[in-house]
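Field log, afternoon session.

UNIT: design team B
ACTIVITY: writing a sequence onto a fixed backbone
BACKBONE:
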């Protein structure tokens, strides 16, 4: 069984559309953060609902509902803008997202099994710690997001996957990042997709969001 795994779309509709063009007919799962940073929150939520993408809640999805403090100043400005832009129905959709999604073969958290919304699990974390995360997930495959950096680690105990970020990559590449996951073989492939970065950057500027959010998309930082 093959699925597509995405994460951290952050309201970047052109990037999401380009990725979904690549995923084809396979089922798509998301590891959180539909909104934040970029200027298409309503249309992003609408596309998630149209495509019936299964998703967990990310820290930005949570913050726009409950608490905006604790974010850096740029993230805070974008979340305030998002909160003032989306409607009640769109907010209700974000409220409906679970903090954990557990299927028979895999589970998904935005952060980690120990801190589902906020913990960063970076690729350079020691393997013994990664194995502890995998065991805590209680599945053969553990899917995470939040770092915006792709991660594929195979162990005897199972597989840990972070597909990277669709909407704001931070690994030095500007192309949107996602993964194909072969569940039966426990194998994952990271895929990069070109999208019209200029379109998102222009919309960021038009919305009055911080200039840095537009600039960083061209450098994957």
């Amino acid at each position: 069984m093959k699925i597509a795994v995405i994460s951290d779309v952050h309201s970047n509709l052109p990037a999401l559309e380009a990725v979904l063009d690549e995923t084809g007919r396979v089922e798509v799962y998301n590891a959180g953060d539909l909104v934040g940073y970029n200027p298409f929150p309503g249309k992003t939520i609408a596309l998630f609902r149209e495509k019936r993408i299964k998703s967990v809640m990310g820290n930005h999805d949570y913050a726009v509902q409950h608490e905006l403090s604790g974010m850096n100043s740029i993230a805070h400005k974008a979340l305030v803008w998002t909160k003032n832009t989306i409607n009640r129905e769109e907010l209700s959709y974000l409220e409906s997202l679970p903090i954990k999604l557990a299927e028979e073969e895999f589970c998904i958290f935005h952060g980690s099994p120990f801190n589902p919304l906020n913990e960063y699990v970076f690729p350079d974390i020691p393997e013994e710690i990664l194995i502890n995360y995998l065991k805590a997930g209680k599945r053969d495959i553990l899917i995470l997001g939040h770092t915006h950096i792709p991660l594929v680690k195979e162990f005897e105990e199972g597989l840990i996957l972070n597909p990277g970020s669709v909407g704001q990559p931070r690994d030095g590449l500007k192309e949107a990042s996602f993964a194909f996951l072969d569940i039966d073989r426990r194998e994952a492939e990271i895929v990069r997709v070109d999208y019209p970065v200029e379109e998102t950057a222009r919309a960021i500027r038009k919305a009055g969001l911080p200039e840095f959010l537009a600039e960083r998309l061209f450098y994957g930082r």
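LOG NOTE: The beta strands are 2-6, 28-30, 54-55, 101-102, 106-108, 141-143, 151-155, 158-162, 176-182, 187-193.
NEXT ACTIVITY: expression trials, pending approval
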